[in-house]
Amino acid sequence: MGIEGILAETRDLAVGYRSGKRVTTVMKGLSLRARHGELVALIGRNGTGKSTLLRTLAGIQQPLEGEILIEGSTLSEIGTSRLPRMVSFVSTEPVALRNIKVREVVELGRFPYTNWIGTLTGADTEAVDAALEATGVADLAGRSIDSISDGEKQRTLVARSLAQDTGLLVMDEPTAFLDLPSRYGIVSLLRQLTRERGKCVIYSTHDLDTAINEADRIWLMTGDGVTEGAPEDLMLTGRLARAFESPLLSFSASDGTFSFVRSRDTSIALEGRGRTAKMTARALSRCGYTIDPQARLAVKIIEGHDGPVWTVSSGSSERTFRSIYDLVTNIPEPGH
Question: pTM for the whole thing?
Answer without folding.
Answer: 0.81
